[in-house]
């Protein structure tokens, strides 16, 4: 019987578990502590700190299946996805790792054993590659790997590969090393006889594909391009799960396996089209089947679509899928969200983050789809208008860019629609504008980073900040970076009281002080487990001993807001229900912001209850109960909630105040009473199904209430201290609107009277009536009077001049028939007359107005008007 995708995943993990590997869950897709990477793009990313020697090796052998996303940066497959049958945005990478433990021999032997014995892939379809060396890098041919492979596979199936294919690097800098890839030839026997598969390896042949990459990590690529040895040698293997399934299930496309068939079936059902009949339709279906996985899992891992960073990448992928559905499958209503159910059925058991958050994921996707479909139809309308104006059947590059930039209208869609209507798009012009935009963005964020200068041997920074605000510290290493032309120095200490940004809480600020110098620290962040302190000054004597001092009052205010966040989380679950889950948070010295899943607006009444519950817990003086040594399982058993999108170590820290218990690495008050007061300031929506609360605590909350109080006092005084302020304001408002009504009535009356008296000045001309008068009224009243007089006296021609508010204006009205008969144009006239009042204006042939700056010119304008008419 054919192995299913689920069986294959399980067998892979079982195999390596039996070889002493610890099986770990996939890390969340969105990376939080590495400025060089947005999403996990390889199974090894979550272990980068171990490769770099920044973290201790706790488990020398690990295996997993890791969700990866290759849609930005060095590894970007987005454009191929859908067009071929073996690249994906999101894919699972099966991996086994040795951290300073086994090396090439075992990695090669086990890979071969698993593929050919456990999965019974036929040996004569497999090829392997080894690194041929690179002169510029000074790296040698990988003889070792070659010799180990020779034991298992005939030498004529071992192929030398160059640096591009056989030297693996995660990014511009970081851990890297030579690699050996395993390729499989999935063509028919007949084709294999006709053309030897060896020549097709690494030639982009859709049936001769790489399935597994064994990387032998031994170098670190520095910022200056050089390679240095890593402290230990490691193995990093990565096998494309979807490709492996295809090889084992003997299919010609990844999409013909049970990983994708259920999704494609659902797309067929929704769209009414059949897969496998027409290439254009197939591509669209593959794009959608692929992209829905990327979108669903990224949202489940805590990244909502947005207008920048990782959120924007997701938004673009989703829009790509919507667009293919819209253009090729005639799907003009939201539909991708319906695929989440299928994903859940197929993958939810193994990836609980999806199962547990399915409703939220569906809601978010549906709203994104709906919004984008609206943009699409607006864009199509704008495009039609632009095409109507276009000259010589070419759409201007700038127009195309505006559509793309302002309305998110994809350029290939613009091209497609233009083509259908017989137009071309000026792509050169478009690219020019795109480049200007990209260059501007790049310059705004350009960072140049120098290599670390080591002062002392590397070690993990000891964090003492839970217990103390100061420490005696030594600099381990520092480096210079330049950002927006400003020099910034990053410092790593052996010991620090500075909290590094994490779990929503901002990094500490403070000072490093030695006998010779003071370095102000303006932020603290973690990067691949390096604890980095940011300052604008280069240390003069980095060898000195420094006193590290955290800014005390900011830290205390931040701690109050952090503990208040935990209490708020509990109160939300108690008042709104246990569906509430944290979706994001920000905690700093000024306020706290908490995003959570909830499907309707939180009512005023609920907000009051929530606030009251938090204040009750503050009043109860709940002491901090902290445990830094529990295992994740123990903590969960005690009721601590783990967050989706967070990566947890083997031991975790739990923070408890009464019934509130959370996994948290942040800084908290010693007793809930320290918070003094909690006040909600705002409740809004962030996305479909995600609400946001902003709140303040302690002295900020007290100051806020005092300010509100003095505002009320002032208000009361200005109303002459009424007994009931609200009643007084309401009665003033009632009185005001009654007065307004009265004034309106009087104004109308006055205007009517004025109109009557002005009407008396109308004079008879040759076949029409004429008026040129100064009428000091507001523009709206003048307009209505002008039309009323025109109706009474038609055919009529009149000029109404006003100096009201020292703002001169001219209004000309001419009966339509009269204007046509005499060939008069009020617009042209008003522009000529406008010069007298130093102004300009315009309008239609029968009605036009002008405003100006010189009220003294009114008389001349009146005279000039009479002259024109006569
Ligand atoms: N890091 C290697 C890759 O991504 C092997 O895991 O291909």
Structure characterization notes:
The protein has 870 residues and is of the alpha+beta class. Helix content is 40%, strand content 25%. The chain has 25 helices and 37 strands. Strands 1, 2, 5, 6, 7, 8, 9, 10 and 11 form a 9-stranded mixed β-sheet that branches. Strands 14, 15, 17, 18, 20, 21, 22, 23 and 24 form a 9-stranded antiparallel β-sheet that branches. Strand 36 and strand 37 form a beta hairpin. Helix 3 runs parallel beside helix 4, helix 9 packs antiparallel against helix 10 and helix 10 crosses helix 13. The longest helix is centred in the C-terminal third of the chain and has 35 residues. The site of serine has 10 residues, from strand 10 and strand 11.
In total, the number of strands is 37
Question: Tell me, what's the shape?
Answer: globular
Query: Helices and strands: which structural class?
Result: alpha+beta
Number of helices: 25
State which percent range the strand residues make up: 15-25%
Report the bound ligands by name, code or SMILES.
serine
Regarding quaternary structure, how should these chains be classified?
A: single chain
Question: Major sheet: size, sense and barrel closure?
Answer: 9 strands, mixed
Q: Could you report the average pLDDT, rounded to the nearest whole number?
A: 93
Cα separation of the termini: 102 Å
Secondary structure: helix percent: 25-40%
């Amino acid at each position: 019987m054919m192995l299913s995708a689920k069986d294959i995943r399980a067998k892979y993990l079982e195999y390596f578990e039996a070889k002493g590997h610890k099986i770990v869950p996939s890390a969340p897709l969105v990376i939080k502590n590495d400025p060089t990477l947005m999403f996990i793009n390889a199974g090894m990313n979550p272990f980068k700190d171990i490769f770099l020697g920044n973290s201790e090796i706790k488990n020398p052998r690990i295996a997993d299946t890791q969700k990866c996303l290759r849609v930005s940066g060095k590894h970007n497959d987005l454009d191929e996805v859908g067009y071929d049958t073996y690249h994906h945005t999101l894919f699972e990478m099966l991996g086994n790792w040795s951290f300073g433990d086994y090396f090439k021999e075992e990695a090669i032997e086990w890979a071969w054993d698993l593929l050919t014995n456990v999965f019974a892939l036929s040996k004569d379809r497999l090829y392997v590659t080894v690194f041929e060396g690179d002169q510029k890098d000074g790296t040698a041919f990988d003889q070792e790997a070659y010799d180990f492979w020779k034991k298992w596979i005939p030498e004529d199936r071992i192929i030398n590969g160059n640096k591009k294919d056989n030297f693996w690097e995660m990014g511009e800098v970081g851990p890297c090393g030579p690699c050996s890839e395993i390729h499989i030839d999935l063509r028919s026997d007949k084709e294999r006889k006709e053309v030897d598969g060896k020549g097709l390896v690494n030639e982009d042949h859709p049936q001769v594909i790489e399935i597994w990459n064994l990387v032998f990590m031994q170098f670190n690529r520095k910022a200056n391009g050089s390679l240095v040895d890593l402290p230990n040698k490691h193995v990093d293997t990565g096998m494309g799960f979807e490709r492996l399934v295809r090889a084992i299930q003997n299919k010609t496309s990844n999409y013909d396996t049970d990983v994708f068939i259920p999704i494609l079936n659902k797309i067929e059902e929704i769209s009414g089209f059949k897969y496998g009949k027409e290439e254009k339709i197939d591509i669209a279906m593959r794009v959608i089947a692929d992209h829905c996985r990327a979108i669903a899992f990224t949202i489940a891992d805590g990244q909502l679509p947005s207008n920048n960073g990782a959120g924007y990448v997701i938004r673009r992928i989703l829009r790509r899928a919507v667009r293919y559905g819209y253009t090729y499958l005639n799907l003009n209503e939201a539909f991708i969200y319906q695929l989440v159910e299928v994903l859940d059925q197929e993958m939810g058991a193994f990836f609980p983050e999806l199962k547990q958050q399915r409703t939220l994921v569906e809601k978010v996707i549906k709203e994104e789809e709906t919004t984008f479909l609206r943009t699409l139809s607006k864009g199509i309308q704008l495009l039609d208008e632009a095409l109507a104006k276009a000259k010589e059947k070419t759409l201007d590059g700038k127009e195309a860019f505006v559509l793309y930039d302002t309305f998110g209208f994809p350029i290939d869609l613009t091209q497609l629609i233009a083509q259908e209507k017989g137009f071309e798009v000026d792509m050169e012009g478009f690219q020019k504008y795109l480049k200007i935009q990209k260059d501007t963005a790049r310059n705004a964020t350009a960072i140049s980073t120098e290599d670390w200068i080591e002062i002392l041997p590397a070690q993990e920074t000891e964090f003492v900040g839970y217990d103390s605000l100061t420490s005696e510290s030594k600099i381990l290493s520092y480096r210079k970076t330049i950002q927006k032309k400003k020099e910034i120095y990053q410092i790593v200490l052996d010991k620090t009281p500075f909290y590094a940004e994490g779990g929503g809480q901002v990094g500490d600020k403070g000072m490093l002080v030695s006998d010779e110098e003071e370095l102000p620290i303006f932020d603290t962040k973690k990067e691949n487990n390096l604890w980095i302190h940011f300052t604008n000054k280069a240390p003069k004597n980095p060898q000195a001993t420094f006193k590290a001092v955290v800014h005390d009052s900011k830290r205390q205010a931040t701690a109050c807001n952090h503990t208040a966040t935990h209490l708020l989380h509990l109160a939300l679950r108690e008042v709104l229900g246990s569906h509430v889950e944290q979706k994001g948070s920000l905690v700093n010295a000024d306020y706290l912001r908490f995003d959570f899943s909830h499907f309707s607006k939180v009512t005023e009444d609920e907000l009051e209850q929530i606030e009251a519950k938090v204040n009750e817990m503050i009043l109860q003086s709940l002491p901090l109960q902290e445990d830094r040594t529990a295992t994740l399982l123990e903590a969960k058993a005690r009721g601590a909630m783990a967050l989706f999108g967070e990566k947890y170590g083997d031991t975790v820290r739990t923070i408890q105040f009464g019934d509130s218990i959370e996994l948290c690495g942040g800084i908290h008050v010693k007793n809930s009473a320290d918070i003094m007061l909690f006040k909600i300031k705002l409740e809004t929506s962030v996305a479909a199904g995600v609400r946001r609360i902003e709140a303040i605590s302690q002295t900020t909350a007290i100051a806020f209430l005092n300010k509100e109080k003095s505002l009320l006092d002032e208000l009361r005084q200005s109303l002459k201290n009424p007994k009931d302020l609200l009643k007084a304001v309401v009665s003033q408002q009632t009185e005001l609107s009654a007065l307004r009504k009265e004034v309106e009535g009087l104004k109308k009356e006055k205007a009517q009277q004025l109109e009557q008296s002005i009407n008396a000045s109308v004079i008879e001309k040759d076949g029409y009536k004429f008026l040129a008068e100064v009428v000091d009224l507001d523009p709206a009243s003048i307009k209505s009077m002008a039309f009323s007089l025109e109706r009474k006296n038609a055919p009529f021609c009149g000029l109404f001049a006003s100096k009201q508010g020292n703002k001169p204006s001219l209004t000309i009205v001419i009966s339509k028939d009269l204007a046509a008969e005499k060939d008069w144009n009020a617009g042209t006239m008003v522009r000529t007359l406008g010069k007298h009042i130093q102004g300009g204006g315009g309008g239609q042939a029968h009605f036009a107005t002008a405003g100006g700056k010189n009220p003294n010119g009114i008389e001349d304008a009146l005279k000039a008007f009479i002259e024109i008419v006569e």
